[in-house]
């Protein structure tokens, strides 16, 4: 395997679908949302992407079988709402060129399926452990800004300051070349931990956009687990601070 | 040399052989077992693989000649038992793409020789200096799990947690595409040191699988040397700890 | 996108133009000057260069749209003076090979437009926060040295000691192969901070070379902002030094 | 420039020459010897090699012109002794694959010129600042060992322990494939500093092999400069040690 392999598992008929991308990234926000959607919509796997630009690694399944690191595309066919393609994966590429190549492949698939709009999902790390529920936006077509604001997405001057890195960013930049509208939805998150709470915020916005009611119980459960972990971290930090103060006081006696 | 070179040294006739891979990795467990097998079975070198993805380096032999870093395939023809191909090597690739390419080459060879099953050998690092003799397994076909358990191989939920990295992992993942059953046998090891004791455990399991009696004296000797080294390390650590305690006590007098 | 893309936006008629390159580098001196020129001359964008060797990233514009990282070529057509091509960009390549490829592309463009001379702009980091206004030179043709000295450019033995890295350097080295004269103008700078003051010095020299009067107000404003920031840093350093001395004195009382 | 370029400057007639390689490496021993040979033999440049695998950089000459990083081949035609090809260069490649490619190119040149033997020159770092004058050897053909010992070259079991890295090593490993005898001569050196003293030792051995008398004044001068620098370093280290002891004594008074 010297080249990236696009393995088509099934061809499906879709009507000008929406494509949603949620690969691993800051706080795993995009990945959590996209995988939740695949599960709740009971979407069907149609494509697997293997690449020498992914880490040279297999992951072990629950039945003790090993699977190559890969990206996958799932399809959801709706009778009454929008058809949807969802891109998920275990890892992003580890080489610079790989990010560009995988993005190109997702856009080829988008053109083949006449995708009419792309939403890329991610997290925006602030370095603060406080939650906000804010979803930040960026687009590839300024006409979309007002519409997105209508869904509660915020647009802030000069944010994200460093731009958007990885496939979520490149899809936004490269979709312009093939005339597909695209937006990136970024859940505000600390950037230190997997953040199902921020994923809930992104999912909530996305549900409005897609006009779908999606059960969020699984994300809520994970968010509650995470809250307990964060409370524990904060508690330990406070204890550490008191201990540090204590130590300083002890030190004064040495003088 | 801009491309990987597969140098066929000799063509041999084998009857649907088993392929065993033991390249350098955690605790050099796989390498120790595979090289021991080559020596004890007096297997014959049939292929050398050179690649610009290997480190740009030569190693010096006992007769002061230098050899390019390479991977090698040895063949063992048996009158009564399974024929065997064994993959060994000085190094794994240093580029991401190289791992995928070398794995593809090993699978090409496997198909050419009608290999019926692949065993990849490695170590599973626990961070503990205690020995266990446990051999952990992963497969590419869930039907193999019960058979492997019969040989004393353990299967544990979510282990190895990080998956399996390098050719041992990729062979497991990619052999599915060419319909060859494969299992990875991982000796539990500290991950800090070359571990002939763990290699003995893997070799013992592999001997049962292959129904071969293999002299393990050489591995036992190396294991005893290693035990002495580990005892020395533990002793030094204890002395260091006592010394640290001593220093702490001295410090109290300053107060 | 597996290959670098040169997107021609517009063909223009120019008379043996001069090409000026100012990509990001030490103190962003070259980038500041080249972008200032584009703005003041109201130059027209004629080419965009996209590459998998650039960081896999988009940058966010003021209208919340995202743009792929790219390099750009602008054209300035003059009635009375030299026509000019200006190369600017957000980033340089992140791979080794990319620098060579982008330089080759700029030279292809130079040949297509019959460029008669190339000026590459950069900073030369000294590690000192003192300003000097000096512009250091290097050429690809020793005949140019005296002419360049006439514009106030200094040539110093063995400087820059480490050579010139990136596209500014490679353009100098590779333009010889296509018989185009080239000079690199390097503003002396600390190397720690974006340096609009050093950019002013380079712009001043370049204006003389091009026989153009260029409004430098924007650069002057940025330089004044930067002076305030540097004054603040120096002040903080002095306070820190006094504090350190204070601490040392305190420590003496412990003895 | 997306590919490595071999620029033939001049074709020369040579009688089965010897090829000597001295690119930058440990202590720059090989580079010092090879460049000294080029100068003393007044050898003629016949080939320049440019590559996107070299650092993206130009170096500045004494006349303020800039040259791309490159490797070069020089030819020396003798009336009475062996003809010689000498490979020198500013840098080695910065990519893994580049080392293999440049080595392949040197071997292509060797075959074109019917090279009958290759000597690669380097340093062997011991981590000690003591000089020894020892030259260590490795070969690609065990028949050469006795001959090399006759020139005072030492062969030691398991040294260099880590093998030989870079073009000097790869030439040894890959020359076997084209049936050219090769030896690597390594001057023992600290590995911390440029070492003209070790270069003198290697040059002395090489002069015997080539049956040439070579003026070593330039290397001797550089060696004397280096001795003064090392003496200074040793002196400073001793002062530092005394100072440290002093500080420790002062500290005792605190208790």
Oligomer: homotetramer
How many structural units, i.e. domains of chain A? 1
Level-1 CATH class name of chain A: Alpha Beta
Query: Can you count the beta strands of chain A?
Result: 11
* Through-space gap between termini of chain A: 68 Å
Broad shape of chain A: globular
N-to-C order of helices and strands of chain A? EEHEEEEEHEEHEHEHH
The biggest sheet of chain A, with number of strands, parallel, antiparallel or mixed sense and barrel status, is: 8 strands, mixed
- Going by helix content, strand content and strand pairing, the class of chain A is alpha/beta
CATH superfamily of chain A: PAC-like subunit
Strand order across the biggest sheet of chain A? 1-3-6-7-2-8-11-9
Q: Largest interface, counted with CB-CB under 8 A? A: A-B, 22 and 33 residues
Radius of gyration of chain A: 21 Å
| Overall average residue pLDDT of chain A | 91
Q: What CATH architecture of chain A do you see?
A: 3-Layer(aba) Sandwich
Model regions low in confidence, pLDDT < 50 over at least 5 residues of chain A: 246-255
Q: Helical segment tally of chain A?
A: 6
- Percent strand of chain A equals 15-25%
* Helical content of chain A (DSSP H or I, runs of 4+): 25-40%
């Amino acid at each position: 395997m010297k080249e990236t392999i696009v393995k088509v598992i099934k061809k499906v008929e879709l009507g000008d679908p929406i494509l949603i991308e949620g690969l691993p990234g800051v706080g795993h926000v995009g990945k959590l949302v996209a995988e939740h959607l695949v599960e709740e919509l009971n979407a069907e796997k149609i494509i697997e992407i293997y690449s020498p630009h992914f880490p040279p690694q297999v992951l072990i399944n629950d039945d003790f079988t090993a699977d190559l690191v890969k990206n996958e595309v799932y399809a959801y066919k709706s009778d009454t709402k929008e058809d949807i393609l969802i891109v998920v994966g275990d890892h992003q590429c580890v080489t610079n060129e790989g990010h560009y190549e995988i993005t190109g492949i997702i856009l080829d698939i988008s053109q083949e399926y006449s995708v009419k709009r792309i939403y890329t999902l991610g997290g925006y790390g602030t370095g603060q452990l406080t939650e906000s529920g804010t979803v930040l936006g960026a687009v590839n077509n300024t006409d979309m800004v007002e519409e997105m604001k209508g869904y509660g997405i915020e647009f802030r001057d000069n944010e994200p300051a460093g731009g958007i890195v990885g496939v979520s960013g490149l899809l936004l930049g490269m979709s312009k070349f093939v005339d597909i509208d695209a937006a990136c939805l970024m859940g505000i998150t600390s950037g230190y931990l997997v953040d199902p709470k921020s994923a809930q915020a992104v999912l909530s916005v996305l549900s409005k956009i897609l006009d779908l009611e999606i059960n969020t119980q699984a994300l809520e459960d994970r968010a509650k687990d995470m809250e307990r972990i964060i409370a524990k971290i904060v508690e330990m930090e406070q204890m550490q601070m008191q201990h540090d103060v204590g130590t300083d006081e002890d030190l004064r006696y040495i003088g």
